[in-house]
């Protein structure tokens, strides 16, 4: 086992982005740091596999011939629903020897089938979380985060979350500067922390059909510290407050007040995770006005105060 070896088992029906996204991150980190990862793909029998999008991948070798890698990264895709005979057996026999076991999207189903997630907290694509929980009750499924670390096992949500998790692992291996350089090169965010929800406020709500209401949704997102009262937002949409509130609820599936709460909470979480700004400064930037108002919002939604949230999810920014 070499410290920088990375193995990706591939199979018919694999999601190509689950493979190529993380591989680009790790390959880029190797180029930037001068300490490259030994990246290999392998299939049962060593033959080519056809991805869910129709692309053909030619693996480096046969799974039966590979040494135990430092990091085993199991991608997802339609092929995880009916895995090839022997793939789960291989994982059950060999995966536990790796220093890190990682899955992207529905790759968690393969890890669960091999018993590697028993007793662990894990996540997967939001559309599969219920299936994972029902099929494998020994797994503690958390449907919210984009990725979850539990000991040496890490699981991630949909395809782009695999990139986020790969960046987190690169930061662990090579430091923040390398991870940031890779993220900039790939034009992705560094860093979406694992606890970030799979759905942003904008995705959790429906997009309004009418242009004035869509513009209001965008305005709320861009101005969390503004006057976001129903009266002010209704004026922006050129509607009466009563008509605006009814139309917003009908077209987005949530009330204006609830949408504003989600946007402000999401913005505050991001600032606590990614900056060293004080709680008072963040409370003003997010429209709460006072630290106490922000604290009440956090306790109500997350069961924890802002300062504790920062200590838990981004201790490096804690004074």
Order of helices and strands: EHEEEEEHEHEHEEEHHHHHHHHHH
- Average per-residue pLDDT, rounded, comes to 88
| CATH fold node name of the largest domain | Rossmann fold
Beta-strand residue percentage: 5-15%
Total DSSP helices: 14
Main β sheet profile: 7 strands, mixed
Cα gyration radius (Å): 22 Å
Structure notes:
The chain has about 325 residues and is an alpha/beta fold. The chain is about 45% helix and about 10% strand. It has helices at about 15-35, 85-95, 105-115, 130-135, 160-175, 175-185, 200-205, 210-220, 230-235, 240-250, 255-275, 280-285, 290-300, 305-315, and strands spanning about 5-10, 40-45, 50, 55, 60, 70-75, 100-105, 120, 140, 145-150, 155. Strands 5-2-1-6-7-11-10 form a seven-stranded mixed β-sheet. It has a two-stranded antiparallel sheet with strand order 3-4. The chain has a two-stranded parallel sheet with strand order 8-9. Helix 2 (about 85-95) links the parallel strand 6 (about 70-75) and strand 7 (about 100-105). Helix 1 (about 15-35) runs parallel beside helix 5 and helix 5 runs antiparallel to helix 6. The model is unreliable at about 195-205 (pLDDT under 50). InterPro entries: Class_I_gatase-like (IPR029062), DJ-1/PfpI (IPR002818), Homeodomain-like_sf (IPR009057), HTH_AraC (IPR018060), INH-QAR (IPR052158). Keywords: Transcription, Transcription regulation. It comes from Streptomyces sodiiphilus.
């Amino acid at each position: 086992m070499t410290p920088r070896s990375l193995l990706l088992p591939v199979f018919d029906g694999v999601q190509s982005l689950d493979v190529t996204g993380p591989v680009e991150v790790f390959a880029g980190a190797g180029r930037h740091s001068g300490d490259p990862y030994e990246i290999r793909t392998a299939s049962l029998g060593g033959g080519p596999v056809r991805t869910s999008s129709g692309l053909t991948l030619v693996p480096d070798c046969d799974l039966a011939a590979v040494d135990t890698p430092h990091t085993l990264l199991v991608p997802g895709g339609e092929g995880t629903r009916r895995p090839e005979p022997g793939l789960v057996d291989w994982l059950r026999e060999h995966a536990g020897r790796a220093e890190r076991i990682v899955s992207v999207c529905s790759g968690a189903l393969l890890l669960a089938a091999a018993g590697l997630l028993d007793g662990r907290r894990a996540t997967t694509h939001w559309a599969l979380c219920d299936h994972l929980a029902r099929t494998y009750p020994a797994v503690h499924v958390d449907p919210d985060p984009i990725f979850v670390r539990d000991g040496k096992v890490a699981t991630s949500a949909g395809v782009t979350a695999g990139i986020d998790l790969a960046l987190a692992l690169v930061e662990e291996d090579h430091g923040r500067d390398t991870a940031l350089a890779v993220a900039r090169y790939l034009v992705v965010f560094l860093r979406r922390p694992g606890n970030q929800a799979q759905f942003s406020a904008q995705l959790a709500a429906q997009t309004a059909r009418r242009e004035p209401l869509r513009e209001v949704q965008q305005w709320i997102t861009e101005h969390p510290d503004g006057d976001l009262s129903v009266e002010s937002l209704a004026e922006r949409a050129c509607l009466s407050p009563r008509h605006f509130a009814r139309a917003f609820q009908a077209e987005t599936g949530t009330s204006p007040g609830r949408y504003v709460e989600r946007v402000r909470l999401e913005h505050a979480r991001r600032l606590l995770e990614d900056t060293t700004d004080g709680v008072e400064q963040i409370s003003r930037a997010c429209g709460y006005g006072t630290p106490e108002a922000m604290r009440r919002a956090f306790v109500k939604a997350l069961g924890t105060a802002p300062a504790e949230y920062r200590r838990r999810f981004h201790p490096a920014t804690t004074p």
